[in-house]
Design goal:
The structure holds two protein chains of two kinds. Chain A has one domain. Chain A contains nine helices and no strands. Chain A has helices at 2-17, 19-40, 44-66, 69-76, 79-85, 90-117, 124-151, 158-185, 191-220. The relative contact order of chain A is 0.15. Chain B has seven helices and nine strands; from the N terminus they run E-E-E-H-E-E-H-E-H-H-H-H-E-H-E-E. Chain B is an alpha/beta fold. In chain B, strand 7 (149-153), helix 7 (161-176) and strand 8 form a beta-alpha-beta unit. Helix content of chain B is 33%, strand content 26%. Chain B has a single domain, classed as 3-Layer(aba) Sandwich (Rossmann fold). Classes of the chains: A mainly alpha, B alpha/beta. Chain A binds chain B through residues 2-3, 6-7, 9-10, 13-14, 17-18, 77-79, 81-88, 93, 220-221, and chain B through 48-52, 68, 71-72, 74, 76, 78-87, 91, 95-96, 98-101, 103, 125.
């Protein structure tokens, strides 16, 4: 467990020394979600209808933006090799790296979403549901993305391949995440959608670090 | 303690080496020699368990590797710098230890860095250090990580005369304390004794 926390601390410290990489994803999210209301114009009904979808697609793409760097730097400079040979289990270290990725690329999106949701004329209760859905959904995106990042590690043109590999796997998260807000606005209650998101997250927390570790071991051979 | 028998490795169609066997007891070291491309690094990676062997068996304390005990007893330093350019030598050393599950206090890490001649450089980002100094930061891990088996791949590269002598001393100390080492190098090594393995 200490090794996991050490990995998180290390990755956060590294991100602090290289802020631009983290800020890129966050700015991407802010700008993309702000462009839609500007492009569509003052039509509250339409904006309210498309808001969940747009915020979720933007969150998905912003997460994807940070994924290629998840393991690439450690792979190039040989730190990943050292992690694989470390007395600590590689699975724990990988879980730490995924957690750090979520803290850097996922959590800021969750915190910004209520502010950005205001542009789409979402009311307070819809904003709460949106934030909750993202809080459950963004770790899921990081976990699934980590498998893709590990599988495409060291592959030329890996970034494009990563998007092709990971985006289809993001579809369930997108459907239930955006669906939660839509259902709430329609008055149907978001409980079912959120429960399904939470179930998917629980499953991913269990399996994704393990799958990522297996993929990393293959990449290191 | 370390027993290797019938190890074979091929890259694609090409057989790099086959039937490599050796054993090391406490206090012994092995010098792996061979031309460029003869498979020295591949042998090291097989040995530490980063890649699987085509054939053969590696046993550590009579257990097949990779075992948890083997990973605890092993330190492998390869061609890669394996240090973070944005962090300082001190941070690099302490974080690498933390990842290995070993709490390292600042005094011990400073002592290791001073021994490797990095006094006054410990708060600079590694990015601004020279290639040889980066190598020294990595080598400081030999002092902070209690390992029995040192597997060092071309560890003498990029080091100046003083550092080569120092690394030789570190290895000799390690051996006399009952450690083991497997080294590759093209130069004759400043460590007495040792078995030789030519690929």
């Amino acid at each position: 467990m200490n090794a996991l926390l050490a990995t998180v601390r290390r990755d956060l410290l590294l991100a602090l020394r290289r802020k631009s990489e983290v800020l890129t994803a966050v700015f991407f999210f802010v700008i993309v979600t702000s462009l839609f209301p500007l492009g569509i114009g003052p039509e509250p009904v339409l904006l309210k209808k498309i808001a969940p979808g747009i915020l979720w697609v933007a969150a998905l793409l912003a997460t994807l933006l940070g994924l290629p760097r998840l393991f690439a730097a450690d792979h190039v400079d040989g730190t990943l090799e050292q992690m694989a040979l470390s007395p600590s289990s590689l699975g724990l270290l990988v879980a730490g790296k995924i957690l750090a990725h979520w803290l850097l690329c996922g959590l800021p999106l969750v915190l910004l979403a209520p502010v950005l949701g205001l542009q789409f004329d979402l009311d307070a209760s819809a904003l709460v549901i949106l934030t909750l859905a993202l809080l459950l959904g963004t770790p899921l995106l990081s976990l699934i993305g980590a498998i893709g990042a590990a599988l495409t590690l060291g592959v030329r043109g890996g970034g494009v391949l990563l998007a092709l590999l990971v985006l289809p796997l993001y579809i369930p998260a997108l459907i239930f995440g955006a669906g939660a807000v839509e259902a709430h606005i329609a008055g149907l209650g978001a409980g079912g959608h959120l429960s399904l998101l939470a179930a998917m997250l629980a499953l991913a927390v269990f399996f994704a670090p393990w799958a990522t570790t297996a993929a990393l071991r293959i990449a290191l051979e | 303690m370390l027993n290797v028998s019938g190890l074979a490795c091929s890259r694609g169609e090409r057989r790099l080496f086959s039937d490599v066997s050796f054993s090391l007891a406490a206090g012994e070291w092995l010098h792996v020699q061979g031309e460029n491309g003869s498979g020295k690094t591949s042998l090291m990676r097989l040995l530490v368990g980063l890649s699987p062997a085509d054939a053969g068996l590696i046993r550590w304390r009579d257990e097949p590797t990779p075992s948890a005990e083997f990973r605890r007893d092993l330190i492998y330093l390869g061609h890669h710098a394996a240090v973070k350019e944005d962090l300082t030598p001190l941070e690099n050393l302490r974080l690498a230890s933390a990842l290995d599950g070993i709490a390292l206090d600042e005094r011990a890490s400073m002592a290791a860095l001073i021994r490797l001649g990095l006094r006054g450089r410990e708060e600079l980002p590694v990015r601004v250090l020279s290639a040889g100094q980066k190598r020294r930061v990595l080598l400081a891990r030999l002092l902070t990580r209690p390992a029995v088996l040192w597997v060092l791949d071309e560890a003498f590269n990029a080091l100046d005369v003083a550092a080569v002598k120092l690394l030789g001393e570190l290895i000799a100390e390690h051996l006399s304390a009952g450690g083991m080492a497997v080294l590759t190098s093209h130069q004759p090594l400043p460590v007495p004794g040792g078995k030789a393995l030519v690929l």
